[in-house]
Amino acid sequence: MSSTSDPHSRLLAWFAENRRDLPWRQSSDPWGVLVSEVMLAQTPVARVEPVWRAWMDRWPEPADLAAEPAAEAIKAWGRLGYPRRALRLHEAAGIIVEQYGGEVPDDYDRLIALPGVGDYTAAAVVSFAFGGRATVLDVNVRRFYARYFDGQPAPATHLTAAERRRAAEIVPDRDPALWAGATMEFGQLVCTARAPKCESCCVADDCRWLARGRPDSHLRTTRPQGFAGTDRQVRGLIVDLLRAGPAPQEAVDLLWADRIQLARALDSLVADGLVDPVGQGRYALPGDG
């Protein structure tokens, strides 16, 4: 699928007509793009959008976030889940201020060195914020490529070197961010994990998976993660309690009947830097003690 091929053109035309009007797409502000990509990791767009808007209203620049305690970032994170992302974003804001004069760096190597920024996020910021040619590979793009090129219902569990090489070759020199956005959106809206809309697919004529009769289409391409009763749930209850301010051990003990699991969750939050012991048997979010 070269940049001049008909399937490529059809996909871009589909994107032009069907792209969602998401707030972080309305400008190429690097900080807004970075915040959106961190928030969107493992979290649906509908849950992210209001939190992103509130976050950007309060902290429109990295320096604004860096000037406040980490506790404020964790509180503002709300119920997006995985609050370590908020803590890492706060740390990243501090580094951006200290090392880059408050400007989000525009190259992959500096971006991936920031706390909480992995391969996908660094590539996405290079592409969407700066218009650079980067290999943006999230689960949606990988699933689309696996079906279209390989005739498989889903990609390998882990990103392979072969996948990366192919994806890098596909990225066009002209408007690479447009291609990245189109393939991600297509995977999210059409070439979905559980119910792909093959009947309305603009590149169905060239899809190897469809040509093979959609083998193994009954198999799940993603595995749902349980939540109820897990340490993640207990950690969330503790963080929710501390969003209102420091609390004593007695208040923490009331959150969960299984004291062993509760202690394990609390210890893990302290180890992750999300909770600080502040003396006299009390706990607080970092910088809120």
Q: What report would you give on this structure?
A:
With 289 residues, the chain is mainly α. Among the domains are: 29-130, Endonuclease III, domain 1 (Orthogonal Bundle), CATH 1.10.340.30; 231-284. It is built from 15 helices and three strands. It has helices spanning 6-18, 30-40, 45-58, 62-66, 70-77, 84-100, 108-112, 119-130, 139-150, 161-170, 176-189, 208-211, 231-243, 249-253, 259-271, and strands at residues 247-248, 276-279, 282-284. The protein has a three-stranded antiparallel sheet. Strand 2 (276-279) and strand 3 form a beta hairpin. Helix 5 crosses helix 6 and helix 9 (139-150) packs across helix 11 (176-189). It is globular, with a radius of gyration of 21 Å. The N and C termini lie far apart (56 Å). The mean pLDDT is 93.
Could you provide a short overview of the structure?
The chain has 289 residues and is mainly alpha-helical.
Please identify the structural class as seen in this structure.
mainly alpha
**How far is the first residue's CA from the last residue's CA?**
56 Å
Which architecture of the domain at 29-130 per CATH? Orthogonal Bundle
Radius of gyration: 21 Å
Uncertain parts: none
Major β-sheet strand ordering: 1-3-2
Provide the CATH top-level class of the domain at 29-130: Mainly Alpha
Q: Main β-sheet, in a few words?
A: 3 strands, antiparallel
- Can you tell me the CATH topology of the domain at 29-130? Endonuclease III, domain 1
The global form is globular
Question: Overall mean pLDDT score?
Answer: 93
Spell the H/E element sequence.
Answer: HHHHHHHHHHHHHEHHEE
